[in-house]
Write a structure and sequence with these properties.
The complex is a heterodimer of chains A (140) and B (405). Chain A has 140 residues and is α+β, with helices and mostly antiparallel strands. Chain A is built from seven helices and three strands. Chain B has two domains: 134 residues, Aspartate Aminotransferase, domain 1, CATH 3.90.1150.10; 254 residues, Aspartate Aminotransferase, domain 2 (3-Layer(aba) Sandwich), CATH 3.40.640.10. Classes of the chains: A alpha+beta (140), B alpha/beta (405).
Chain lengths: 140, 405
């Protein structure tokens, strides 16, 4: 999947979600994504990396790789981890400039934003915001 | 008369709905209870037939509203067996009640004195005392807790001493369900002449309290945890204590005379009820008290206890299930963790299956610190919950645990 552009990755995620009949299945997928997320090593987890505004603890680390930006993340709750994994899957190792201006309508298309409770939807938006901040900083 | 849970349940229209395509199982009662029809109707009846401001109008509607509100004050008095109605104050909630006492005590407490609380308090029974101590230089002390979630009172004779100004604690813990040894604590406090305050947030819906029997100085209740409207609390205070306490807020209703130079205050309870009160809240709460009294609080407590035991028995079969708070005396609250899962994840997946529980710290960070955990999932029962609710909850919990591990 890594070779694809952001919008191709988003499209394939949307297609993936269309397979599922109900939200329990979607959550199951998110949980499995969370379990497969490459972990941020324990020694790299510091408080500066914590995404503010999430109910559970979410760490997000961005690094520059040429003109691309890479992400590593972890969370103490598995669904939050699955959600950040989903975002990492879309934005990891992409040109920072592209990440910064990326369209986010896929979140609506998979229904995630509407489905989460307001506090959790805020958490999701905090993760997205953090990804975009890093991308803007690295693109500039 | 046998406990007819279906007949009780039928009075709560909100329970009859689906969440994510599954029947709603509402087990977040320790946060707030649902409202029976008669409470909702009492509120709309007030607005449909006799809405008016209270206590100052000579016109008929104002008189009716005032009578209705004051009748509830009398119901509350009877409910907790206060000596007189003037000892019942309507507040915005328990947080407001406790702050009222803490702020009033500013001029009554001085450096060298201490306030004693416990490690098992809701934040609203910690922070106001911390603030009082900051204002006055008094010392804040607390009783620790053991790993069963029970208070450790071994050092009661040194913790509560002749310099103790006040001892404040909850009757029943919202996070753990522990029923605390109220009388032992009160007795010790009374021995040294300290004031006492019992937070009755969780006793209101689950236990009969007689303030004269306890001889407690202050006692608080929350309407919305007792099937009544939000935004209303009760502060009971002994007359002699309330008279010593300066008013918390100035304004209308709480004055006797107002001159530009100086005002004199009304007698209790009005001294503590500045501004237009939460009239419809009070009226709704009256209906809630009638509801509780019709069933009988002992009958409700027995039903909830049966549900707690029934839930516990099934939950303990789930691999890795761990109860947080195993006190011998427990009411209506099942706080738990499942090994290898995060409470937030459990909460989300239970919600997906129609089951409402609370997850997190339950406004009791010091309790979570005692157990070295970041939070728990909590199921709490009310008069309208059924064994079927428990079955659905347990099935949903098993499903969630399976997905998360």
């Amino acid at each position: 999947m890594n070779a694809h552009t952001i919008s191709e990755r988003q499209k394939s995620l949307v297609e993936e979600f269309e397979f599922f009949e109900d939200w329990m299945e979607k959550y199951n997928y998110i949980i499995e994504l969370g379990k497969s997320l490459p972990l941020l090593p324990e020694e790299e987890k510091n408080d500066d990396l914590i995404v503010q505004g999430c109910q559970s603890k979410v760490w997000l680390k961005a690094e520059k790789d040429g003109t691309n930006i890479t992400f590593k993340a972890d969370a103490d709750a598995i669904i939050a981890k699955g959600i950040i994994a989903l975002l990492v899957e879309v934005f990891d190792n992409q040109p920072a400039g592209e990440v910064a201006k990326a369209d986010l309508s896929f979140l609506e298309e998979i229904g995630l934003k509407d489905h989460l409770s307001p506090t959790r939807a805020n958490g999701l938006m905090s993760m997205v915001k953090q990804i975009k901040y890093y991308a803007l900083a690295y693109a500039g | 008369m046998a406990y007819d849970v279906q007949q009780i349940r039928a009075q709560f229209p909100i329970l009859n709905q689906e969440i994510h395509g599954r029947p709603l199982v509402y087990l977040d009662n320790a946060a707030t209870a649902q409202k029976p029809l008669r409470v909702i109707e009492a509120i709309s009846d007030y607005y449909l037939r006799y809405n008016a401001n209270v206590h100052r109008g000579v016109h008929t509607l104002s008189q009716r509203a005032t009578d209705a509100m004051e009748a509830v004050r009398e119901s509350v008095r009877q409910h907790i067996n206060a000596r007189e109605v003037a000892e019942v104050i309507f507040t915005r909630g328990i947080t407001d009640s406790i702050n009222m006492v803490a702020s009033g005590m500013t001029t009554l407490v001085e450096q060298g004195q201490n306030i004693v609380i416990t490690a098992m308090e809701h934040h609203s029974n910690i922070v106001p005392w911390q603030m009082l101590c900051q204002r006055t230089g008094a010392e804040l002390r607390y009783f620790p807790m053991n790993d069963q979630g029970e208070l450790v009172l071994d050092n009661i004779d040194s913790l509560i001493d002749e310099n103790t100004a006040l001892v404040a604690f909850n009757h029943i813990s919202n996070a753990l369900g522990t029923v605390n040894p109220v009388e032992r604590l009160l007795h010790k406090a009374q021995e040294v002449g300290a004031w006492t305050l019992v937070d009755g947030a969780q006793s209101g819906p689950h236990a009969k309290v007689d303030v004269q029997h306890w001889d407690v100085d202050f006692f608080t209740l929350s309407s919305h945890k007792m099937y009544g409207p939000t935004g209303l609390g009760i502060l009971y205070g002994k007359r002699e204590c309330l008279e010593k306490l300066p008013p918390h807020q100035g304004g209308g209703e709480m004055i006797a005379t107002v001159k530009m130079e100086e005002s004199t205050y009304a007698d209790i309870p009005h001294k503590f009820e500045a501004g237009t009160p939460h009239i419809e809240g009070v009226i709704g709460f009256g209906a809630a008290l009638d509801f509780i009294n019709e069933i009988g609080i002992e009958a409700i407590a027995a039903h909830e206890h049966m549900l707690l035991e029934y839930a516990l028995e099934q939950c303990l079969e789930i691999e890795g299930f761990k109860v947080i708070g195993n006190a011998k005396e427990k009411a209506s609250v099942l706080s738990f963790l499942i090994e290898g899962t995060h409470p937030y994840d459990l909460g989300i997946l239970l919600d997906q299956q129609g089951v409402a529980v609370r997850t997190g710290q339950h406004c009791t960070q010091p309790i979570m610190d005692t157990f070295c955990i970041t939070g728990t999932a909590r199921a709490s029962f009310a008069c309208y919950n059924t064994k079927e609710d428990v079955d659905l909850f347990v099935a949903a919990l098993k499903q969630a645990a399976m997905m998360l591990r």
